């Protein structure tokens, strides 16, 4: 079982204060405070800023990732010691972007999830920001655009997600009868995933000199919802190629800019010291991603 002092430290941060942590742990507030103080005394560093809500110090933030790993190792040890017992599934918290979750991720990991009896806690964020989840100890691994490993971590290349600018044929006929022009793009409603999603902004600025704020857009923070908006002629936007191959072949969507594919290179980050289950999960993830993300383009497929 996780050290009682570490349990108290973790609970204070997760619950946002000593009083709530005490209720969560069925202890008195003074008992929780004493355990945290003992941990700080042993480590010789303050771990918490006693604010509202309580925040970790830099030393406390460095400690957090190891607590997540310790819980997994502890659960694996219980399995090893009692191989015939029907214990709880192992929980794996991971950070992932919505487009990966909606496309290649599940086929890549479904075997290891089933065979190892895992339950996944998928924390969804933009691929440019998921590494912060790993640094804060919220997850054991993350899909990110960051190529360099963080301190104490390893990184593995997953592949490239290609994005196409798509719309329905009806939308194209109504808004872009003469193709993509600066004037038409300033009026046609775009679809963006969120306000941190800058792919559309960069495309319009670099290709048409159209700055952010000079075109209308829907904000649809769901990969499936994003695609539904496009199919229903409500807007146009950048969608992963692997998500729209069938729709393009069927003609329900069209590529508005065949020569302007956007690419996003993805990497898998994890702690250097991994449990056996986490190591197998990482291997399956990387292998499955390589199969899905290195597919030929739609044009190449059509030419064969």
Automatic annotation (TrEMBL):
<keyword id="KW-0805">Transcription regulation</keyword>
<dbReference type="InterPro" id="IPR036390">
    <property type="entry name" value="WH_DNA-bd_sf"/>
</dbReference>
<protein>
    <submittedName>
        <fullName>Transcriptional regulator ArgP</fullName>
    </submittedName>
</protein>
<feature type="domain" description="HTH lysR-type">
    <location>
        <begin position="1"/>
        <end position="57"/>
    </location>
</feature>
<keyword id="KW-0804">Transcription</keyword>
<dbReference type="InterPro" id="IPR005119">
    <property type="entry name" value="LysR_subst-bd"/>
</dbReference>
<dbReference type="Pfam" id="PF00126">
    <property type="entry name" value="HTH_1"/>
</dbReference>
<dbReference type="GO" id="GO:0003700">
    <property type="term" value="F:DNA-binding transcription factor activity"/>
</dbReference>
<dbReference type="InterPro" id="IPR000847">
    <property type="entry name" value="LysR_HTH_N"/>
</dbReference>
<dbReference type="InterPro" id="IPR017685">
    <property type="entry name" value="ArgP"/>
</dbReference>
<dbReference type="GO" id="GO:0003677">
    <property type="term" value="F:DNA binding"/>
</dbReference>
<dbReference type="InterPro" id="IPR036388">
    <property type="entry name" value="WH-like_DNA-bd_sf"/>
</dbReference>
<dbReference type="InterPro" id="IPR050176">
    <property type="entry name" value="LTTR"/>
</dbReference>
<dbReference type="Pfam" id="PF03466">
    <property type="entry name" value="LysR_substrate"/>
</dbReference>
<comment type="similarity">
    <text>Belongs to the LysR transcriptional regulatory family.</text>
</comment>
<keyword id="KW-0238">DNA-binding</keyword>
